[in-house]
Please model this.
Amino acid sequence: QVQLVESGGGLVQAGGSLRLSCAASVSKSSIRDMGWYRQAPGKQRELVATITSGSTTNYADSVKGRFTISRDNAKNTVYLQMNSLKPEDTAVYYCYAEAEDVGGRFDNWGQGTQVTVSS
Model:
């Protein structure tokens, strides 16, 4: 079983920065890919960035050059550094982790953290 606890959301002015963190508590599982998704009001959840256990990263075009994803495998923690924030980045941000145990691979989601960017 995997529990994901997010922190770091909040209200920031356009052009500002925020750093999100997500710590995974695991029992009898190993964490593979981790990442961040977001969902704005009235829109579908979309990928923001992902990172493999080997630190290969992938970003949505809309955040490339502004956001940086990283992870600490020893702590099972993933981070999202968000710079040059825009009002269109306003959304609930969800942490994601793919876990693997003897039963197979499973997707896990955090509870979400609100990011609001004011113009």
Q: What stands out?
A: DSSP finds no helices and eleven strands in the chain. The chain has a mean pLDDT of 96.
